[in-house]
Amino acid sequence: MGIYGRHIVPRIVNATCGAASAHPHRARVCAGLHGRVLEVGFGSGHNIPFYPPAVTLVEAIEPSEVAWKLAGPRLTASRVPISRSGLDGRSLPLPDASCNTALSTFTLCTIPDVEAALREIRRVLMPGGTLHFVDHGLAPDEKVRRWQHRFDPLQQRVFGGCHLTRPIAELLITAGFELRELDSFYEPGAPKAFSAESIGVAVSA
């Protein structure tokens, strides 16, 4: 990863993912989190204000030093203890069945080898534990999908490996999760190719 990936992309993501328009999604996806929470793709901590009172500890997985530094003020203000517990979602340094719930916001679209990461999340979750997720991915409409495939190479270069074409719900099911809740929609006011989003809760079967 070059200078652009290490230093510029985290700042772009911090700005775009920190938009106020994402706050309702963050509040919705964080609802129901409790106990020891695994957060894969912690980024710069934009979910911190939305952790519910039932959360007792967050195990944050974040590879970017710049993103972690940008999270500093939010970490300081957090009422929940947050530990940077690992750098790679594909190999979590946590025991089996050690977390009550898990959180992924706009991460499954980007993380390399997403299948391996989902297997690791399942391993770390307690039986019946839930993964709360919100992400953008492959659109339900074929016309939009064609545009997504055209834009995907550029999207990956500009946003550090972020894909427009990952089928989020399908990936979860294939990994052995059961979808308890799923809402798929286009973000109002945004180009459909970049705003086909899914928000939901998946249970580790």
Automatic annotation (TrEMBL):
A GO term for molecular function: S-adenosylmethionine-dependent methyltransferase activity
GO biological process: methylation
Protein name (database record): SAM-dependent methyltransferase
Coiled coil: none
Species for this entry: Amycolatopsis endophytica
Pfam families: Methyltransf_11
Keywords, in A-Z order: Methyltransferase, Transferase
Sequence ranges assigned to domain Methyltransferase type in this UniProt record: 38-132
